Amino acid sequence: MSNRDNAVSWPAHGGQATALLQRFGLPANHAFEDVSANLNPLGPPKWVAAWLAQRFDGLSRYPAPDYRAARQAIAADNGVQPAQVLLTNGGAEAIFMAAALHAGGRALLLAPSFGEYARACSAHRLNMTEHVLHAPHFVCEVDDLLEKATNADVVFLCRPNNPTGTLMSLDTIKALLAHTQTTATQVVVDEAFIDLALGVDALTPLMERYPQLILLRSMTKFYTLPGLRLGYVLASESLITTMAAHQPPWSVNHLAAELVAPLLADRAFARQTQQWLASEQPRMTKALKAQGLDVVPSHSCFFLVRPEAAKRIQGMTSARLFERLLRHGVLARHTYSFPGLDGDWLRLALRDGPANNRLLKVLHDCLC
Ligand SMILES: Cc1ncc(COP(=O)(O)O)c(C=O)c1O
Fold this sequence. Notes:
By secondary structure, this protein is of the alpha/beta class. Helices cover 40% and strands 15% of the residues. Strand 5, helix 8 (170-183) and strand 6 (186-190) form a beta-alpha-beta unit. Helix 4 (68-78) runs parallel beside helix 10 (254-265) and helix 5 (90-100) crosses helix 6. The radius of gyration is 21 Å and the shape is globular. The chain starts with a helix and ends with a helix. Bound molecules: pyridoxal-5'-phosphate (PLP). Pyridoxal-5'-phosphate is lined by residues 90-92, 114, 158, 162, 190, 192, 218, 220, 226, 231. Pyridoxal-5'-phosphate (PLP) is lined by residues 90-92, 114, 158, 162, 190, 192, 218, 220, 226, 231.
């Protein structure tokens, strides 16, 4: 059975543990370590639990309609004006709002990339074209990108890209911005994982020169708060005004909005995460390769991997490895739902040191 045929029976989203356990005939209480979700394993910061409990009363009030304090904190953190910030219900709402700006228009998406761009474009009736990034390096060829962008109203980029972990170069982004200024194409860069990438140039200084640039951020990955829902948009003042006019009222809950400033002020947590990433990321890249995996060089807290060619020829496909890992108590992210990957790869998220060592041990058992 080819990987493509096989895709039919895989759940569309990776982290659907119940469906995946059922698919492989495993009991609902089968214990596993989840490396399918890309979240900072050091978070949430320890103080958040007590902080939330103390503010329980806040739930009996409506949030401040303009989220002023949160927007000021984000603006100061990014060197922009508060009027250039829109607080959103996670990065996901920001993606749908960016697509809504071009309802009925034409979008250029990269593939493989995060699936919500296509869902958002489809929800807002955009006509989609794909710019395919090819394995094994998934590099974006600039000439081809510019040509395709010419006919688009909006281009969605993900930096670093989920699921490849690759980072589009600053030169390519500048070339795209210079080009799209002449074609009136908007460039949306989803930077949900930017805080989990080290030594990366910020795009915020480009916003003044290129008002068609929109940056989308998530605070759920870095602070490990996906259940709280928190994200934001950085854009020109006029674009933020337009987007805000279309946002449902009180889209971000009171506790999430109040948490923005203290989270951003927690420099110790940010430093600790960066130090951990700086040592764990290269250590795991090396160790995963040593297990006989192809590893796409990653700029974030997750890795796209597949068994090396020799192992694949012997029948150790990513689908088989996924199943073995699950039976051994590790839930990886399959890639059937990522156009251009079609299940040929698996995505593994970094966890803390001991959990990563357990993953390496299980991989060793599964691959040999
Ligand atoms: C690239 C990317 N952007 C945005 C999001 C949405 O994040 P949030 O939880 O903030 O909605 C995700 C979530 O997985 C993501 O991978």
